[in-house]
Write a structure and sequence with these properties.
α1 packs parallel to α2 and α1 packs across α8. Strands 3-2-1-4-6-7-8 form a 7-stranded parallel beta sheet, with helices on both faces. A two-stranded antiparallel ribbon has the order 5-9. Helix content is about 45%, strand content about 15%. It is α/β, with parallel strands linked by helices. The radius of gyration is 18 Å and the shape is globular. The longest helix has 29 residues.
């Protein structure tokens, strides 16, 4: 980085910041001189991330929060503004995932994935929007390739990510004339704790491996935060990691048939006993389940 970042001296809020992509984004904006608010479930992990941000020279604080709890999130938004100043950047990264056949998945778990990923993002945008309007700021919604090419065995996750993209695009059109920019970051499989947990389940691993070329690869986490922070600095409307994801909409009409064709062959070869629900995946999903809350570690 050369020269002063436009993030220097501004307040950035990152949800689902206990690990993974959220942690990487928090550290990247901290290195650019932002004041950082990290939100999530696990106080110990949040404290660790906030400490790492301070080691990078930033002012940073953490707030335990369930992104689906509007009352708590409203209180946190007020505390962030009092301690760090009004938010200029909000990164809605919190999310959870659960795999398994739709007809065997507990509907409570299915609903929870949608609630955290979609409703939680909307609550995050709602409570911080007054600050973003005041600062003419930037809201970044973390999405997924699953929004464009939903994977079998992850119906709730695909539905929630498609929904959250629609929400973000609609919000962009609604607030652009008021000076707020809204971006969407689509990520493919990234080496986070959530994805590693999915790899422990044979059926999830087989489905990924037989996805179309490019979409089956797990990408390194290193560098993701820096690339997203650069997009935040430039107030980009769309980010793709890896970059080829930005081209996926051009072939989107073909994807459902292609995915269904490959999945049919993969799933038909597996023992029915392997087709079992995974439950919430990874430490973030487990934290959400054990606390009855909603701020997993995101993508």
């Amino acid at each position: 980085m050369t020269g002063a970042s436009p993030l220097r001296g501004r307040t950035a809020v990152v949800t689902g910041a206990a690990r993974g992509v959220g942690e990487q984004v928090a550290l990247a904006v901290a290195r650019r001189g932002a004041r950082v608010a990290v939100l999530g479930h696990e106080e110990g992990e949040l404290a660790r991330v906030a400490a790492r941000c301070r080691e990078a020279g930033a002012t940073a604080h953490f707030w335990p929060a369930d992104v689906t709890d509007e009352r708590r999130m409203t209180a946190v938004a007020g505390e962030v503004e009092r301690r760090l100043g009004p938010a200029s950047v909000v990164v809605a990264n919190a999310g959870i995932a659960a795999g398994g056949p739709f007809d065997r998945t507990d509907l409570v778990t299915w609903r929870r994935v949608v609630e955290v990923n979609l409703v939680g993002s909307a609550v995050t945008a709602r409570v911080f929007l007054p600050a973003l309007l005041a600062t003419r700021g930037y809201y970044l919604q973390i999405s997924s390739l699953a929004a464009l090419a939903p994977a079998p065995m992850m119906t709730a996750y695909g539905a929630s990510k498609a929904g959250v993209e629609a929400f973000a695009h609609a919000l962009r059109a609604e607030v652009a004339h008021r000076g707020v920019a809204v971006g969407v970051a689509r990520l493919s499989w990234t080496d986070t704790d959530m994805i590693r947990a999915a790899e422990d389940h044979r059926v999830m691993r087989e489905v990924r491996l037989h996805m179309p070329w490019g979409a089956s690869r797990v990408h390194a986490l290193d560098g993701v935060g820096e690339r997203l922070a650069t997009g935040i600095e430039r107030r980009r409307p769309l980010l793709g990691l890896p970059p080829w994801i930005r081209l996926v909409p051009s072939v989107r009409p073909l994807l459902p048939s292609l995915v269904a064709h490959r999945a049919r062959h993969v799933l038909s070869r597996l023992d029915e006993r392997a087709l079992t629900p995974t439950g919430p995946l990874g430490p973030g999903g487990e934290a959400d389940r054990s606390r009855g809350g909603g701020c997993g570690d995101g993508w």
